[in-house]
Amino acid sequence: MVLFEMLAAHNYGELHFGRDEASGLACIIAIHDTRLGPALGGCRMRRYDREEDALFDVVRLARGMTYKGAMAGLKVGGGKSVILAPPAVADRAKLFHAFGRFVDSLGGRYTTAEDSGTSINDMVLIREKTKHVTGLPTAMGGSGDPSPFTALGVRRGMEAAVEVILGRPSLRGLTVAVQGVGHVGMNLAREVRDAGARLAVADIDPIRAEIARKELGAEVVPLDRVLEMECDVLAPCALGAVFTHDNIKKLKCKVIAGAANNQLYDPSVGRALFELGIAYAPDYVINAGGLINVVSERDGYDAARCRTKTLAIHDTVATLFERSKRDHLSPEVVADRMADEILAAAG
Ligand code: NAI
Fold first, then answer.
1. Hey, which end of the chain has fewer CB within 10 Å, N or C?
2. What is the count of structural domains for the chain?
3. For residue 267, how far is the Cα from the chain centroid?
4. What is the pTM of this model?
5. Catalytic residue (choose from 68, 75, 80, 252)
6. Could you tell me the maximum CA-CA distance found in the chain, to the nearest angstrom?
7. Which helix (DSSP H) or strand (DSSP E) does residue 191 occupy?
8. Which residue from 79, 55, 58 is spatially nearest to 67, judged by alpha carbons?
9. Tens digit of each residue's pLDDT (9 = 90 or more) over 33-65
10. Domain that holds residue 17
11. Residues 115 and 48 reside in one and the same domain
12. How far is the CA of 159 from the centre of ligand 1 (A)?
């Protein structure tokens, strides 16, 4: 009963549970909404303390994919999968083959992709059992690494935010602080440096921070200072749940625009940021470049078309900040409403 209550609360959809004795596979595929098209979303593999945690994770993530696809103007539904990682994976090929067969059994209503805990090599293994997989290597006709597209979309969203909120025509002369210079963060750091911004970075991995200093001339700031430093734009590109009611009081940025998923600890933090006068570019809108890239694989990958669609994130972010100002609503609430309008029109 609790299960169906949870599905109702998230306006679901379907859940599929898969188990394979021989490979040790235990997985859940969540299909949240298919009004815009068949569902697509990454496969996350991690240890979960409790099965309920895996369920909660996949349900929440798949819903996020519905909204992300809608706001990116894609003909894609929201889905996601989790593999409950066994204590030790004896045979990775066997595990992902079993997962691939399970995805295949859904007949294309769900297409999988890479996520945390899975890699491009795992997608190649899945491809041996189903065609409903994206994020394949370019040599296989796939879209390869999505991070440069994600970074491009974040940079364009950031530019829209500074135009509407700060009245600045570009990032030139502004200070941008990037938390986490990994795949997306490093690409983003390069983008904003090239756009003429002053760059500050922090990374838990000192080697990554040093690369940004040497190659991009970034100032390296301590991990505990990056959120509190004086800057125009703060770009979280590391972890989720980075903003809480406690730490937002110490922020000295004017705009938040970064790639990390689920940046707000809970939705009420969005309202609190709005009341503090800090413009938060909703993560799922601004980081959709990677999704745009993998979705394109379904119709034959075309990098130029993906780039055009990714650049359009600028206009979406500009529109939602305009509406946020006009209606005195926080931007993530406006984004949810805009996505709901798109979904209702499709459905
Ligand atoms: P990544 O693992 O390559 O990079 C994360 C970086 O953050 C690493 O350099 C890591 O050392 C650093 N880091 C971790 N904890 C930190 C901390 N406490 N303080 C500072 N730095 C810390 O991951 P990737 O692919 O760059 O993704 C970054 C974020 O963007 C994630 O939240 C991911 O879910 C999200 N995202 C990524 C997309 C993609 O295309 N890769 C697409 C959409 C969202």
1. N
2. 2
3. 16
4. 0.93
5. 80
6. 60
7. helix 183-194
8. 79
9. 999 999 999 999 999 999 999 998 999 899 999
10. 12-59+76-133
11. yes
12. 21
